[in-house]
Amino acid sequence: MKFLRTIAVAALASLLALPALAQDFIAGIPRNEALIIQGPTAQNADWFNIWAPGGGATTNGTQQLSADTFWFINPEGGPNPWQNALATEPPIYNADFTEMTVKLRQGVYWSDGVEFTADDVVYTVQTLIDHPGMNWAAAFGVNVASVEAPDRDTVVFKLKAPNSRFHALFTVRWNAAWIMPKHIFEKVADPLAYNFNPPVSLSAYVLHSYDKAGNWTIWKLRDDWQRTTIGMDWGQPQVKYVVYRAAGNPEARVIEQRNHNLDVINDITPEGMFSIMKDNPSAAAWLAGFPYAHPDPTLPSVLFNTKKAPFDNKDVRWALALLIDIRAVALGSYRGAANLSALATPPTGSAPEDYFVPMQDWLTNFELDTGTRKIKPYDPTIAEQLAKMVRPQWGDQIPTDPEQLKRTFGFGWWKQDVQAATELLQKAGFTKQGNRWMKPDGTPFTIRVQVEGDAIPTLARAGTAIAQQWTQAGIDAKVDVAGPTHGQRLGTGDFETVIAWSIETWGGHPDLSFFLDSYHSEFIKPVGEIQPPRNLQRWEDPRLDEIIERNRTVAFDAPEVKQLGQDFLKLAVEEMPMIPLMAYNKFAPFDTTYWTNYPSIDNPYSASGPNWSNIRYMVVSLKAATPAAQ
After folding, report:
1. Among the listed residues 51, 155, 190, 222, the one whose alpha carbon sits nearest the alpha carbon of residue 616
2. CB 216 within 8 A of CB 149
3. I want to staple 72 with a disulfide (CB 3.0 to 4.6 A). Which of 22, 132, 172, 199 is the partner?
4. Is 571 helix (H, G, I), strand (E, B) or coil?
5. CA-to-CA distance for 446 and 169, rounded, in angstroms?
């Protein structure tokens, strides 16, 4: 109880600062018809154009509830991870992967009553190509030679070069290229400057209202929900209203959910999660026991801006990796509930069997030349070390089986080796004056470590722990809390190092194209211009291009996919363009007072985080709780 009182006191100021509590947000809306989700604060709340960067919040339900595209893949995997949406079947390629045909579903309508057709798809792709500043414009411009609609239900893409992964641009794992309403945008002078307000919906929900200050957005089930792909495949949703609302800092979110004003939390601190799960009978989570968290197929890392010296030097990047004590980072950020990764892919979904198990011998024998000697930096015992640290608190909840430990805490990571880091920095021309590292030009070695802040508290803590370790080693490292400017600064390269991710996988499939295709050098922009997702570190290497180009010429399910994935992972270890840290274990509890049937490890029908576009399947699968619970 003492801990809960501490949370309540810490949250009070944040709660008082909120524009309104949940009851005020949904005035006039029956509480038992509304799903309330922790959402972001939008810098430009009037902006709903998800095809152009205008400061709006796409994760306020815009892309989750009103947008649609050809296909979805369940990041949890399972027996049937592939979902046809606007398309009636998977993509149809010709023999050499230079042409892709898509068959479209009939009877789908925009929320203003206009029928969706192939003309919308052709218009979307051509408009994005014609306006390079728009999202997905770079990928379409590089790939598409032409796009045409031979009839109202068929679209044919002719590609500039073989690309067996072109369909990934239209396949949602977190988001994808959404289809634009031609009949709306063709009347707009400049699609980059158009706010698309109010948005015309292609999915099951339509905008109801929103706060001009950007603190909340409310969506309502369409009257003609049956004329959407959700209605056709899933039937009538029981959730009539979906409220995305800012809910204060992590401590405030705990209080709000305890008060049943927040059904779905996007992320909180480990302490908040442990507290909620300990004594709240209405709480539910992905895992019923420690660590409770949902392991997203996303890889938080230390991203380097490889276009800025000295981070363009792999010896410097490796030195910074070897100065990290990952055990302290795991304890400081996740209270030990971290699944570590030395490879540039998260250890979730099918990745343990596809990559981590088969690559253990290679990792153990990997040698690094420090300029003075060769070392083997990999430590395969990290899982046991972390388990030993947290077992006194969690007891029998911590497994003892070595294989289970690896899947809970990770297969291994790099040894902290200050001497090897010293040798690598000296190899790169650095010198030490007293306890202070100096760059080759004689100026002090300083590092700005950017973090987002309270939106993702675990990663902010990880950045603080790493900055402290670098400072202790003689590098002047300072944490830079970016807050709502985080995404914009990532895109323009306004950072030196940042705790974020540029690697996200399909989850249940070994193919790495979800992020890997975008790593090709053809997509790299100069610092200051917006870098297309997802190569935020702007890593450029001819060997990387070769792997990507080979992957584009083999089928999505071909046996060669795993070998090409291993080739990439080995190159990423050698060059260290980012320091992989861990899977993104997200502490995202649910409240079951009003709604039940949330996804879990035992029922993984959907992603559980509210920022994921796949959450549309969760929203339409929820069941109203019993009247007594309401």
Report:
1. 222
2. no
3. 172
4. helix
5. 38
Distance CA 364, CA 355 (A): 14
Q: Work out the widest C-alpha separation in the chain, in whole angstroms.
A: 73
Tokens 């408009």 correspond to what residue? 127
Residues ≥6 apart with Cβ < 8 Å to 617 = 72, 74, 83, 234, 605, 606
**Residues recorded for the chain:** 630
First and final C-alpha spacing in the chain:
26
pLDDT exceeds 50 at position 21 = no
* 3-state DSSP assignment of residue 432: strand
Cβ atoms of 215 and 237 within 8 Å: the answer is no
Measured in degrees and rounded to the nearest 5, phi and psi for residue 552 equal: -70, -15
For residues 615 and 301, the answer to whether their CB atoms sit within 8 Å is no
Closest of 303, 213, 331 to residue 486, by C-alpha: 303
Tell me the three state secondary structure of residue 264. Answer: strand
Please choose, from the candidates 345, 294, 348, 299, the residue with its C-alpha nearest in 3D space to the C-alpha of residue 615.
294
Contact call for residues 32 and 239 (beta carbons, < 8 A) = no
Percent of the chain with pLDDT over 90: 80
| Structural contact between residues 38 and 264, judged by C-beta atoms closer than 8 angstroms | yes
Q: State how far the Cα of 543 lies from the Cα of 541, in Å rounded to an integer.
A: 5
Q: Which residue in the block uniquely carries the two structure tokens 């794992």?
A: 173
Q: Cα separations (Å) of 75 from 82, 175, 229, 234?
A: 10, 12, 19, 19
pLDDT in tens, 183-207: 999 999 999 999 999 999 999 999 9
Residue 545 burial class via C-beta count within 10 angstroms: exposed 0-12, middle 13-18, buried 19 and up: middle
| One-character DSSP codes across 303-361 | EE-TTSTTTT-HHHHHHHHHT--HHHHHHHHHTT---B-SSSS-S-TTHIIIIITTTHH
**Start-end of H helices in 144-224:** 182-185
- Whether the predicted pLDDT of 507 surpasses 90: no
Mean pLDDT of 353-379: 97
Radius of gyration of the chain (CA): 24
* pLDDT grade for 617, boundaries at 50, 70 and 90: very high
Task: Tell me which residue of 523, 466, 528, 533 sits closest to 501, measured CA to CA.
Answer: 533
For residue range 87-125, what is the model confidence (pLDDT) as tens digits? 999 999 999 999 999 999 999 999 999 999 999 999 999
Please give the pLDDT value at position 221. Answer: 98
